[in-house]
Amino acid sequence: MDFSYSEEQQMLQDSISKFVAQDYDFDTRKKIIQTPEGFSTENWKLFADLGWLMVPFGEADGGLGGSATDLMVVMEELGKGIVVEPYLACVVMAGGLVAELGSEQQKQEILGPVMAGERQLAFAFAEAQGRYNLADVGVRAQQQGDDWIVDGHKAVVLNGEAAEQLVVSVRTAGDRTDAAGISLLVIDAGAPGVTRKGYQTVDGQRAAEVTFDRVTVPAGAVLGPVDQALPAIEKVIDRATLAVCAEAVGAMEVTYKKTVEYTKTRKQFGVPLAKFQALQHRMAEMFMEYELARSMLLMAAMQLDASDGLAPKAVSAAKNRIGKAARLIGQEAVQLHGGIGVTEELDIGHYFKRLTTIQFIFGSGDYHLQRYQQ
Amino acid sequence: MNIDLSPAELDFQAQVRQFLEEKLPSHYSDRVLKGLYLKKEEYIDWQKTLYQQGWAATNWPVEHGGTGWTPTQKYIWANECAEAGAPDVIPFGMKMVAPVIYTYGNDEQKERFLPDILASNVWWCQGYSEPNAGSDLASLKTTAVRDGDDYLVNGTKTWTTLGHYGDWIFCLVRTGRPEEKNQEAISFLLIDMTTPGITVSPIITLDGHREVNEVHFDNVRVPVANRVGEEGGGWTYAKVLLTHERTGIARVANSKRSLRQLKKLAAETGDGGATLMENPSFAQKITEVEFDLMALEYTELRTLAAVSTGKAPGPESSILKIKGTEVAQAIDELYVEMAGYYSLPFVKEQFEPDFAGEPVGPGMAADSAPHYFNNRKASIYGGSNEIQKNIICKAVLGL
Ligand SMILES: Cc1cc2nc3c(=O)[nH]c(=O)nc-3n(C[C@H](O)[C@H](O)[C@H](O)COP(=O)(O)OP(=O)(O)OC[C@H]3O[C@@H](n4cnc5c(N)ncnc54)[C@H](O)[C@@H]3O)c2cc1C
Question: Where is the Acyl-CoA dehydrogenase/oxidase C-terminal domain (chain B) (predicted)?
Answer without folding.
Answer: 232-396
